[in-house]
Design brief:
Elements: H1 3-13, H2 20-32, H3 36-41, H4 49-63, H5 68-72, E1 74-77, E2 80-83, H6 95-105, E3 112-117, H7 123-131, E4 135-141, H8 144-156, E5 162-166, E6 178-183, H9 216-225, E7 229-238, H10 244-253, E8 257-263, E9 269-276
Parallel strand pairs: 3-4, 3-6, 4-5, 6-7
Antiparallel strand pairs: 1-2, 7-9, 8-9
Helix pairs in contact: 1-2, 2-4, 6-7
Bound molecules: glutamine.
């Protein structure tokens, strides 16, 4: 079978995906270890029976709904390729807004200490570390398996200014105070209908769900952060699109200043920020 036919067949099997053609191409590239342009330059290239078998397996899993990032075991974030497994949340484009907001709080050539809570693939810390060489970052996760992925990702980008620590939120051995605390915690309500749709069905519930309102972990982080921020330090949080008001209120109740909320690419509340002045 030739590349052109393999892609066409797969596209038909993936009709339920709204990106069937792209999915087929990306999966075939992962089998052939090539760029997408290769598929268009050499459409008549024949596939070996082993390549066909591997491709068919991936297409069948995709047809069942498995996320592309899990099938090809990687995802691009902040122009960095990251390894992804079923132990971690798949990095989302909107989380780049959180990274940009954090970078805006960190002067370029000044040392600065950062704590990331719930790092997953390491995406946020790795993106910050790659733009701020003088940042000294501690990144935590409650799951050992996630920390292993994050560590590998940091190594593959040659970053040695991130220390990975297994911890449940602020329950960190030898915890310090920081200039900036950042987190994309679980924030989905446990009865949210989205949990049975799309990619999230295959992602760890522990990285997604946080109580009845989705606010349990955000509450722990906001109340805990003030004890661990240096004067003028920043707290930056990703949250659900309907949680902006609740988060701003929590920040206010906990005596944070300079409170603001940033919108995501769909113009919905997504990231809130507060500063610890005292
Ligand atoms: N943004 C993710 C989603 O809705 C959720 C991430 C999270 O809970 N931190 O798919």
């Amino acid at each position: 079978m030739q590349i052109v036919d393999a892609v066409k067949n797969a596209q038909q099997k993936l009709v339920k995906s709204d990106s069937a053609r792209l999915d087929a191409e990306v999966l075939l590239c992962s089998v052939l270890k090539c760029e997408r342009t290769h598929l268009y330059t050499y459409p008549e290239q024949s596939l070996s029976s082993k390549e066909i078998r591997s491709f068919d397996e991936l297409v069948a899993l995709r047809a069942q709904g498995h996320p592309i990032a899990h099938l090809i075991q990687k995802k691009e974030f902040w122009s960095l390729e990251l390894k992804v497994t079923t132990d971690t949340l798949i990095p989302r484009p909107e989380t780049e807004i959180l990274v940009q907001a954090a970078l805006n709080c960190i002067p370029n050539e000044t040392p600065c200490s950062i704590l990331e809570l719930g790092t997953g693939t390491g995406a946020i810390s790795i993106a910050i570390a790659s733009d701020r060489q003088l940042a000294n970052i501690t990144a935590t996760d409650i799951k050992h398996s996630a920390l292993q992925v994050a560590q590998l990702n940091a190594e593959s980008h040659h970053l040695n200014n991130i220390t990975f620590v297994k911890a449940n939120w602020f329950d960190i051995k030898n915890i310090d105070t920081y200039d900036l605390i950042v987190s994309n915690p679980p924030y989905i309500s446990n009865d949210d209908p989205h949990l049975v749709q799309g990619d999230v069905r295959f992602e760890p519930e522990s990285a997604l769900v946080s109580g009845k309102e989705g606010l349990d972990d955000l509450h722990i982080i906001i109340t805990g952060a003030k004890k661990h921020l240096n004067t003028n330090g920043w707290l930056l949080l990703e949250h659900g699109f309907q949680q902006g008001k609740a988060i701003r209120q929590l920040l206010e109740e906990n005596n944070f200043s300079t409170i603001s909320t940033l919108k995501d690419y769909s113009n919905l509340d997504r990231v809130s920020i507060g500063q610890w002045l005292s």
